[in-house]
Design brief:
about 325 residues, 10 helices
Length: about 325
Amino acid sequence: MNPATTISVVVPFYNEAGNVFPLVEAVRSALGPGGGWELLLIDDGSTDTTPEEIEEAGRRDPRVRVIRLGRNYGQTAALQVGFDRARGDVVVTMDGDLQNDPADIPALVDALEDGHDLVTGYRKNRQDHLLTRKVPSWVANRLIRQLTGVPIRDNGCSLKAYRRELVERLHLYSDLHRFIPAVAVATAGARVAEIPVRHHARRVGSSKYGLSRTWKVLSDLLVITTIRSFRDRPLILFGAAGLWAFLVAGVFGALSLTPALVSGENAIVLPSITALMVGLGVYLVMLGLVAESAVFHARRRIDVSSLLVHPTRSGRRGEQRA
């Protein structure tokens, strides 16, 4: 790890009393006694003694910065706040439950310096329940890889390292923290790598994850797929949907002109469906044109230099993007 690299470690907490001080000590041991790092402890509206422990950790060490949110906004919002406040050349994220190991941070930073924009860990020997955590995670990761095209085997691992340039271009919302590699590739053309990291069993507190989040994951996956495929060409999406509406309108229009079917209720229903589908098709096409106009004006505001490969992330020649 380059000693000149400054590191910001961002850790969201929600009801993790008992884990704060051990985590701070583990980060201090991993990064050394020097001043080339900072630790951002973000309290996401905890209702136990986590806020008090975070405040005390901040008083003990000037490298520990305390950020408290007004209520529980969720992990994605807490991470975005950390991204906005981080000062380091490299930003590292991890969970506050001590299942991630801060001792892996130097390896992540070293991999980042090989020319990547984002290095994410994958939990090689995951210490979680098989049926409630491992199996759903395995299914979700395979689905995410198939739909996004980003070959990350463990999207749920919070231990990640980012270049400052990438962090400044990420804008997370909803529950998109689960899809950061896909978001980074889709919106910033990031070079992503994955390395094995350690994973420990939870010692204090209870997990905040469960099967109840399945629907959120699926809805956010739909958002990511749409962004990746149609972010720069929305007319293709809306135009294709409009074309299907016109095709359906054509079918019902033909049926409404068939003498054998034009009788009774069909004389009203079939032309009505035809008119409805024509209107829907026109609406979708117009919506696509409006979206194209918005994208065009957004492109005009982009700093052209942000589209170039940064000299520090050029990496090895011939290296593929994820």
